[in-house]
Amino acid sequence: MVEVVVCRYGEDLAWTRNLPRGVRLTIYDKGKPGQPGWPGSLRLENHGRDDFAWLHHLVERYDDLSDWTIFAQGRPFDHAPDLHRVIRGYAKEEDAADRPEFSWLGFLWETDDARGRPSFVTWSKNPERRELNLEGFFQALWGEPAPEKVRYVGGSQFALSRSAAHRRPRDFYRKARDLSRTFPDAAHAFERTWDRVFLAPPLEERLFGPSGMRLLKPVRPKPAGAACRYG
Which residue segments constitute the domains of the chain, with CATH numbers given? Predict the structure, then answer.
């Protein structure tokens, strides 16, 4: 079975009505108190960002995970414009024999150092240009120093097999969920390390350009006055 898990904060989820027949849908709604939730959604405390919802799902559904789970934001197409195609492929079991047990979903591949440079420091929603404490995050979650570089796909969206999720015990996800509540900028640290969370092979440096980035589709400039959305 394929399941799509969505973290919502007020977004219109009409796109979920186009999921293939037989795909299970779980929506965690983190809207403000008093806001109507999406029909059929599960209310969730508004801790962190998507990371808290993903880790909550892994803790609470550890013994009942679907064969494949696709974790998607309320507006997933900002980072993964081909998401519907991807979901259809999983539902039809296309290329199932060659499918990795963990797959990043997104078009913007990035490289940061252990202080979140350059992408976090230059992020438009970080006007004070604070750094990301990946060193402290690695020590808190894994008890080891952060690597010199982390390579990841922006957006914190991914597909995961049940067997890959079970490489870690449930208590690990409980610890990670607690960390997502308390560690400064934890969502951005998790965004850069989901492959490590699931013991998946890291992205290879040779797949990135000289700048440490890789774009899988052209990025069109936003119209004047358009909002910049991230995560």
Answer: 2-107+153-205 (3.90.550)
DSSP string, 194-205: HHHHTTPPPPPG
Q: Are strands 42-43 and 24-29 parallel, antiparallel or unpaired?
A: parallel
| Conformation bin of residue 199: beta by default, left when phi > 0, alpha when psi is -120 to 50 | left
Give the per-residue pLDDT at 217. 67
- Listed in sequence order, the residues at least 6 apart from 85 whose beta carbon sits closer than 8 Å to its beta carbon are none
Tell me the pLDDT tens digit for each residue of 58-82: 999 999 999 999 999 999 999 999 9
Measured distance CA(109)–CA(17) in Å, rounded = 29
Is residue 140 within 8 A of residue 156, CB to CB? The reply is no
- Token readout for 187 is 């969502």
- Whether the CB-CB separation of 2 and 66 falls below 8 Å is answered with yes
If pLDDT is split at 50, 70 and 90, which confidence band does 181 have? very high
Cβ atoms of residues 65 and 13 within 8 Å: no
Q: How far apart are CA 101 and CA 135, in angstroms?
A: 27
Residues facing residue 7 across a β-bridge: 28, 73
